[in-house]
Amino acid sequence: MGKDKLRKFSEIDTFPNVYQLELGKVMKGNWAKDHFKNTHPIVLELACGKGEYAVNLAKLFPEKNFIGVDLKGNRIWRGARTGVDEGIANLAFLRIQIEDLLDYFGAAEIDEIWITFADPQPQLSREKKRLTFPGFLAKYKILLSPGGKVNLKTDNDGLYSYTCEKVDELGLVSHKKTADLYKSEFANEVLSIKTHYERIYLKHNKNINYIQFSFP
Ligand SMILES: C[S@@+](CC[C@H](N)C(=O)[O-])C[C@H]1O[C@@H](n2cnc3c(N)ncnc32)[C@H](O)[C@@H]1O
User: Fold this and answer.
1) pLDDT the model gives residue 20
2) 119 has catalytic annotation
3) How far is the centre of ligand 1, averaged over its atoms, from the C-alpha of 150 (Å)?
4) Which CATH code fits 3-97+104-214?
5) Which of 8, 91, 135, 215 could form a disulfide with 77 if both were Cys (CB 3.0 to 4.6 A apart)?
6) What mean pLDDT comes out for the span 37-49?
């Protein structure tokens, strides 16, 4: 591992807004009370990378709490550093495998989920790794409070179609969907927040897909 990565790894250990692996489990069911010291709703950004959605949503919505989730500590470092430097009190990060979410959050503890430019896992053999595979959706359903929404933004047309198919097959409620967000009626301040990966795709004129759905 490079020196910079190692430095970031050891630095996030000292950040008050980052929880890692086992340390995060004690927060299950109590994130608002124990970390944020309030009773505000909690929003997750899954596959957050550097956490642009979590950071920008936290600034836009101070009355909600935001937690970015990713396995890569050197990426989380970027968002967490911004949170510390700018004193963003309603922002935290959790470094875990998304597969293990149920070990870290209680039933109905989450108000909304964002999945931002997740790895599309195009090979059929890796379907179970797609963050909108039914196994993941079943976990989100447990974690979300009634009516809680899932938002998926992706450059990947295959992951978008796959997600739309699963939403239909499983009888979920689709609220908004478009294969070209920035040409659609849905483009607004929130949906125009751009992540690191999104900026790269936009440079190549890639269309950005978006779907918002909930569980009946
Ligand atoms: C393509 S990057 C997108 C990062 C960021 N959302 C963006 O748009 O710039 C995908 C991210 O998902 C994370 N990731 C993928 N699968 C994961 C999993 N099962 N658990 C935790 N993190 C995962 C990777 O570590 C990576 O940071």
Assistant:
1) 94
2) yes
3) 16
4) 3.40.50.150
5) 8
6) 98
